[in-house]
Description:
The complex is a heterodimer. By secondary structure, chain A is an all-beta fold. Chain A is built from no helices and eleven strands. In chain A, strands 2, 4, 5, 6, 9, 10 and 11 form a seven-stranded mixed sheet that branches. A four-stranded antiparallel sheet of chain A has the order 1-3-8-7, with no helix packed on it. The N and C termini of chain B lie far apart (37 Å). The radius of gyration of chain B is 13 Å and the shape is globular. Helices cover 0% and strands 56% of the residues of chain B. By secondary structure, chain B is an all-beta fold. The chains are: A mainly beta, B mainly beta. The interface between A and B is medium-sized, with 27 and 25 residues.
Amino acid sequence: GAGVSQSPRYKVAKRGQDVALRCDPISGHVSLFWYQQALGQGPEFLTYFQNEAQLDKSGLPSDRFFAERPEGSVSTLKIQRTQQEDSAVYLCASSLDPGSGNQPQHFGDGTRLSIL
Amino acid sequence: QQPVQSPQAVILREGEDAVINCSSSKALYSVHWYRQKHGEAPVFLMILLKGGEQKGHEKISASFNEKKQQSSLYLTASQLSYSGTYFCGTFFGDMRFGAGTRLTVKP
């Protein structure tokens, strides 16, 4: 596809379950970002990859959150032992930018995660 | 580390102008502007780089004051389609977004 693809679009899980969210970036995009967006707020940075290397994971809220991009393309954000405060929209963005900040980010439609 | 945006919300009539401001406490490599409509992904509008280069939308202009670490987005002759939430993002090795400015354009 031409854009960033995220799946699933919606995810409902019970508290304590593990979830995995997938991001398929635009082909050839070097950088990949994950964000968490609460209702009425701006996207909050979680983590950043350049190819397969995770260069910054300072935004991950706890050690229950884990992200990977093993082949420098598709990325997965995993949340273990989910809690109600994890409910949010998780956005993925990709960019041609090798780390200079001079290229736009292209966002997927997000995964809306609801923890019951 | 997050940039601060102002105002939080703006209501306009079609054809009116608006300015949205973004300020940062850190020196910036670049400032990005995005618009998000309800339930949709943020869409790129503009990038402002150190040195004055701009990349982006034809009908939207912006400024970037490197010394003051501030940027402003100028929306002129607003259209109904301009409604949405505008976010500035500041890049300093990673991207941090402001809380957003909700713009409503009424007929």
